[in-house]
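Input.
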Amino acid sequence: MKSRVGIINAGIGNIKSIANALKYIGYDSEIIQLSDVKNNSYSHMFLPGVGSFETGSKLLNDDWRQFIYSHINAGNFLLGICLGMQLLFNSSEESPGEGLKLINGRIKKLPDKEDTLALPRIGWRLVDFGKDYMGNLGAPSQKSKYYFVHSYGFFENEECDVNSNFIVKEIQDNIDVVASIEKENIFGVQYHPEKSSIYGLEILSNFLKLQP
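Output.
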């Protein structure tokens, strides 16, 4: 089945850089405007995001949310990037606002260990997929570096409804923050794959190769 790829333009992400990265690896994509949501469907969809959780929550209005829920319920694939990943969860301690509640959990501020971790946290960090990894974005025991820009993130806890074999963590700063998470057809990456050279392009390619 031929993939139809869409990038949500809700006003919270750098959609052009993602479109360029997808084109580089051989995929055409469509920028999804709010006026398009009632008439189109996609096999793979991206939710990019930068900025505050509150702003993202407000911009994802009822029409956008219904569109995203219908996409997921139809068995199609969604990948949230950076703030887009955080919006997959219930809420964030950064600011008021409701997330999409597709994955159970709350986003928290990164720990500042005796002023050794500057926030926002910017740059390349090593990510370990782990030998028990069972997801689709990478491979068991894979270790690669990706580009991060964030001050908040998700920390796995007992409330999370995702098996730990589908949760990948950043290991370089020893803060146990989740770098990527996968729940059935819902995916999230805290880093920017479109800015992460060949390692990020591989993540995008693996996501787009998924079939229902």
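The CA atoms of residues 120 and 150 lie 5 Å apart.
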